[in-house]
């Protein structure tokens, strides 16, 4: 995330509704929001209607913001998401379980998932359970001496072809996709309560400690699974 970011733009795409929302980065105050209900009997998104929706709203939003939009968070509600369950096991030889140990296991799991699934992009990586010394934990315990551990991981994946189509829709406006988020996951995590877009913003900011981000922030030199440092904050 850019530290100088003033606003964030979220676009929801589903079979029955398109919506766009802009919020101030620091306060989540709404700057602009518009939604369009659509009749759609297709099994997937209506890209022609989506393009018209973007044509009608991107320019309006940029005029409202008095600034060009460079990137957006795309929220998708689609049956096209694929959930893949995977477990990895490792010995820890009686040492305290560290972030480095977990990073190795998570990299291993991610590589295994990518090799198994062709033409799929990992959208979310969620740890459902930590089993340490044969005991289950919903969150990572601190400073625990560990002989062996396993991680039960859920990967939420999406077709690379679908991602490319969505990227092409936004390229017309010179906008890139910063992140894709599963709308079903957001609603499930918050039990469908409170404002949907604000909840999505919380997800992108790391409110779920068991979601793993796998981007690199080289300037901070915090390693591959940067998000894991939130476990100990």
What would CATH call the architecture of the largest domain?
2-Layer Sandwich
Count of discrete structural domains? 2
Q: Which percent bin holds the helix content? A: 25-40%
Q: Can you give the mean pLDDT?
A: 88
Q: How many DSSP-defined strands? A: 9
CATH superfamily caption of the largest domain: ATPase, nucleotide binding domain
Low-pLDDT runs: 216-233
Major sheet description? 5 strands, mixed
Strand percentage: 35-45%
CATH third-tier fold name of the largest domain: Nucleotidyltransferase, domain 5
Instruction: Give the distance, in angstroms, between the N- and C-terminal Cα atoms.
Output: 19 Å
Would you tell me the structural class of the helices and strands? Answer: alpha+beta
Strand order of the largest sheet: 3-2-1-4-9
| Form type | elongated
CATH class of the largest domain: Alpha Beta
Determine the number of helices (DSSP H or I, runs of at least 4 residues).
5
What is the N-to-C order of secondary-structure elements (H for helix, E for strand)?
Answer: EEEHEEHEEEHEHH
Rg on CA atoms, Å: 19 Å
